[in-house]
Amino acid sequence: MPGPILHVLGARPNFMKAAPVVRALQGRGLEQMVVHTGQHYDERMSDIFFRQLALPKPDVNLGVGSGSHAEQTAAIMVGLEKLMLDREPSLVIVYGDVNSTVGAALVASKLHIPLCHVEAGLRSFDMTMPEEVNRRLTDQLCDLLLVTSPEAVGHLAREGVAADRIHFVGNPMIDTLLGNLDRFDVEATRADLGLGEDYLVVTMHRPANVDDPDKVRLLVEAFTELSRRTEVVLPLHPRGRARFEAAGLKSSPTLHVVEPLGYLEFMALVRGASAVLTDSGGIQEESTVLGVPCLTVRPNTERPITITHGTNRLIEPEDILPAVGAVLGAGRDASERLGKDGLLPSRVPPLWDGRAGERIADVVQEWLAARGVQPRS
């Protein structure tokens, strides 16, 4: 008897991408199993997302925790190999570009278990990024490659991936965003954090920005100066917080350094912001759909569609002050950027329509049926 579809999740971006897929496949009667590797493991970065997104409680939590890339990926692989040998899944589905993604891909490939990658084909062409290494390796091992934007199809084709393995399905992270719009309580989040109406949201976590002491000092100086112009709220992961505080970052009445937030609270914060300053991939996508100006502190992005179709712009750390000043001076021009409902931009990328989960379920069900895997009666 064929085994379950095995979803491997490890870090908070995976949860928003997986929720619509798991939900859509539940409606098809296909057996599923959710595995949390524990790559993100504390309550604010993991458990709260399962509750808020109505994801089923993980069937297995490997509890790998933190460590170097090698330590973490090795622990993920050891745990997943035992699990896959025991359960013999009919298909393994991985998401995004974290260590859990590539670890699961390597294990499934070596065990000859079919593999599907949701968010395949994204490329920054920057091999100094661990995420770029992870997504390139994962895509080379996959049987099904599900892409979120048209340029990803071209990237995969140039890398020699057969066209019949590639499916343009849209962005399941946007399914989660659109499905929860009514739950983003901007006023309540402002009140909880003691914010006024005008504020800037900042997130920084990538090694290129937080591992270089000179760059961290430059960022701290920029955040402090920005807080003299407008309120700044900065949710920080524990590792990043230690680095920034060592460089002199301090909370003040206008610089709010806070713990990581739940999905609903964080997206309410972004929705109400004057602008976002980030190095996150997902926030580039979410701010595009919410119509919030986004400045990405990176030399490149694997999501160029957020620049051509959205509100995003790439900047260097030394450009932060003038770039933010220009955005705040321009304001959020609703007539130019927002749709009729006052929320969504008039130029949303193709298939970012809230139905990617269903399209993914269609592809997966058809692929499994062709190999004799049918829904339970």
Describe what is shown at a glance.
45% of the residues lie in helices and 14% in strands. The protein has 377 residues and is of the alpha/beta class.
- Low-confidence runs of at least 5 consecutive residues: 334-343
- CATH H level, superfamily name of the largest domain: Glycogen Phosphorylase B
Q: Please report the first level of CATH classification, the CATH class of the largest domain.
A: Alpha Beta
Trace the largest sheet across and list its strands. Answer: 3-2-1-4-5-6-7
What does this structure look like?
The protein is α/β, with parallel strands linked by helices and 377 residues long. It folds into two domains: 5-171 and 352-369, Rossmann fold, CATH 3.40.50.2000; 185-337, Rossmann fold. It contains 17 helices and 13 strands. The chain has helices at 12-26, 47-52, 69-87, 99-110, 130-141, 150-158, 172-179, 186-193, 207-210, 213-226, 238-246, 263-271, 281-290, 305-308, 320-330, 334-337, 356-369; strands at 5-9, 32-36, 60-61, 91-95, 115-118, 144-147, 166-168, 199-203, 231-235, 255-258, 275-278, 294-297, 312-315. It has a seven-stranded parallel sheet with strand order 3-2-1-4-5-6-7, with helices on both faces. Strands 10-9-8-11-12-13 form a six-stranded parallel sheet, with helices on both faces. Helix 1 (12-26) crosses helix 17 (356-369) and helix 3 (69-87) crosses helix 4. The two termini are 13 Å apart. The relative contact order is 0.13.
